[in-house]
Amino acid sequence: MSLLRVENVVKFFGGLMAVGNVSFDVPEGCVYGLIGPNGAGKTTVFNLITGNYKLNKGNIVFKGENITGMLTPRVVALGIARTFQNIRLFSNMSVLENVLAGYHCRMKSGALAAMLRLPKQRAEERRAIGKAIAELRFVGLEAEAENLARNLSYGNQRLLEIARALASDPALIILDEPAGGMNEYETTALVDLIERIRARGITVMLIEHDMSLVMRACEYIVVLEHGKKIAEGSPEVIKADPKVIEAYLGSDDDEI
Amino acid sequence: MSVSGNNIRIGLYAAVAVCWVAAPFFLDNYQTDVLNNIAIYALLGLSLNIILGYGGMFHMGHAAFFAIGAYTTAIMNTSWGIPVLWLLPLSGITAGVFALVVARPIIHLRGDYLLIVTIGMVEIVRIALVNNIFGITGGPNGIFGIASPQVFGYPINGIVHPAHYFYLLTVFIAFTIAVFYLLEHSRYGRALKYLCSDSVAAEGSGIDTSGYKLSAFVIGAFWAGMVGNLYAGKITFISPESFSFWESVVMFMIVILGGAGSIPGVLLGAILIIGLPEFFQELQQYRLLIFGIALVAMMIFRPQGVLPPKPHTYPVDKIDEKEVAL
After folding, report:
1. SS3 per-residue string spanning chain B
2. Considering only alpha carbons, which residue of chain B is nearest residue A106?
3. CATH assignment at residue A15
4. Model-level pTM?
């Protein structure tokens, strides 16, 4: 059974069709790539899945539940976590606090429990800190726990976003250009990290421009152009697909 | 922050607390009453800090919640003779319920838009009080003859013995600081700081931002309502003038100037904004001029406030290795 099913999704921004009738299935436990030239609608598809945008038509089904039009916090609670293309950390808060944000939806204590400092609340805080440290260790940022997020290097900020997303115990993690701004060495480590995330039983979906990363990390790839799906299949199939080659290299004014 | 730095800070806070508690022994009644005013505004600042400091919502109508708490106490006490301190929780609840109803439709507004709507709210409340709404607020004259609060049968008169009232307020401030400190460093307080820092990222991390914003309003209003109760019991006479838009501005200044999101900052803000003008009594009309210049200078040279919040350190090293689990 597929973990996530996107069915005939349509999204307009005014008169511009950003996503036109896109469908795909993400099977459980795979690394799924979403690629395409700039402006193809990849991030829009992610924003539709996570409820940041309202879609005009179509359905999104996650774990058999229709999540179309559901608010983002509910989507996260159901098990879809994401990172952002343009890093969005809580920059003036510590690295640890950033990760705690992800675990927020798995905690229960409210304002009253905090004001009364109930034993249950204190135990939960401890558990949350333990969880956050574990996630930081998982991405390799444990030593930075008490630094401010804004003082991290660019690549480490991307890793911190991943740690924050992982802290919500997702079934599906959506990475929007995780290798953006990373050097070759960091990218290789990222491929390894993605593999380890998958080994934890978390399905990974990613948008990426770095083709070497996509081809190394993904088992299945969907290609979008102008908001439409033009190809899908394994990396080998995609590499050989004439439509994909045309989309990327085709006419002179396209990006190279 | 190094350990010694932390110790110096705690020592400083302790010294200030001791001076505060001992102050009435060295001051006359008028000066102690000034301290009482500082205490009332410190409490109001702390309650506004939940909304404006942690949540980052530009709320300039806090006097409305303060007024509702004070009027609840005044009406219930003068009509039915219910002791003032018994009305403390009820005053908070009426203000909190009012905030829930009023804030719900405006909670999604951002920055300056929210500011303007909350200014409207505080004006509407003041006008409603002036117009003797439901025939119970006493119109522009307000309500006279509110009883003084009693603690174990011992009346605490804020006019005759300001020092007595000073200690009642001090106990309440200590309680407020403790409770708000715990709130700040909890899941709840963090959620407010996340949504203040980046609401899209907060939503993306699973935080129900509008729910938290609304609850921040309710908690802030609940506390302001309780302060209204203590205020009514202190001066025993309230009128709409005490809850004008200007009062909201003063509370706003206390939080922003002292350090938004910082409890020591807000306390210092109250001392500076309410206490300092007393020192410049003889300057008369130039007082506000100096005050204005000081405010402008502050906003240019130290916009984060006199004592901005310190990053919280978590007991990372006290967590056992076996508690570190995915």
Report:
1. CCHHHHHHHHHHHHHHHHHHHHHHHHCCHHHHHHHHHHHHHHHHHHHHHHHHHHCCCCCCCHHHHHHHHHHHHHHHHHHHCCCHHHHHHHHHHHHHHHHHHHHHHHCCCCHHHHHHHHHHHHHHHHHHHHCCHHHCCCHHHCECCCCCCEECCEECCCCCCHHHHHHHHHHHHHHHHHHHHHHHCCHHHHHHHHHHHCHHHHHHCCCCHHHHHHHHHHHHHHHHHHHHHHHHHHHCCECHHHHCHHHHHHHHHHHHHHCCCCHHHHHHHHHHHHHHHHHCHHHCCHHHHHHHHHHHHHHHHCCCCCCCCCCCCCCHHHCCHHHCCC
2. B206
3. 3.40.50.300
4. 0.91
